[in-house]
Design goal:
This protein is α+β, with helices and mostly antiparallel strands and 175 residues long. It has helices at 13-24, 83-97, 141-155, 167-174; strands spanning 2-9, 29-38, 44-50, 55-62, 69-78, 99-112, 115-122, 126-134, 162-163. It is 29% helix and 43% strand. GO terms for molecular function: pyrophosphatase activity.
Length: 175
């Protein structure tokens, strides 16, 4: 699967949430996420655990650069009934790969067409906005970048607020 992403620091979370809600036409879905990142040779691998104890193993690869960038990813989801399996898998991955870090966040999800707007409160980091334009098979990288830039402008996100890496990378820089 592929998407185009933009991530940025948010200075006024209330203002950007208001705009995102206007663009989506509905209130956000509130999601509690706890991500454990594992050490890997290429890309990133994380186990995302949700408040309902379901989980998703996510492998993704994207360049660390500001602005709209292509992200290639795979998802392996667990139902609530598989929580013991996700814990077991997490233990195996920790033993085999080691852990890189942990990112705990509260996410507000707004949908605008094929784009997920995430407004995140990240523990020990602050507030951020992330756009994920989910590309359809016939769409090019440029199509996704155009959609992302348009939403970036509508949300009032400035170029100087863009970040070029994942939250786990920012946490690494802070330690």
């Amino acid at each position: 699967m592929r998407n185009v992403e933009i991530k940025a620091k948010v200075n006024d979370i209330d203002a950007i949430c208001k705009i995102a809600q206007q663009l989506s036409g509905s209130p956000p879905t509130l999601i509690q996420q706890d991500d454990t990142f594992y050490k890997v040779n290429k890309g990133r691998l994380k186990m995302r655990v949700y408040a309902d104890d379901s989980a998703t193993l996510v492998r993704y690869d994207r360049d660390d650069e500001e602005g709209p960038k292509l992200c290639d990813y795979d998802l392996f989801q667990f139902s609530v009934n598989d929580r013991d399996k996700s814990k077991y898998l997490d233990d195996i991955l920790k033993k085999c790969c080691g852990t890189r870090g942990r990112v705990v966040k509260e996410r507000r999800l707004y949908m605008v067409g094929q784009t997920r707007i995430h407004i995140d409160k990240v523990q020990n980091l602050g507030n951020f906005m992330e756009l994920e334009v989910v590309l359809r098979p016939e769409q090019s990288l440029e199509d996704g970048q155009d959609i992302a830039r348009d939403l970036q402008n509508k949300l009032g996100v400035k170029e100087e607020d863009l970040i070029d890496c994942a939250y786990v990378d920012l946490l690494d820089k802070n330690t």
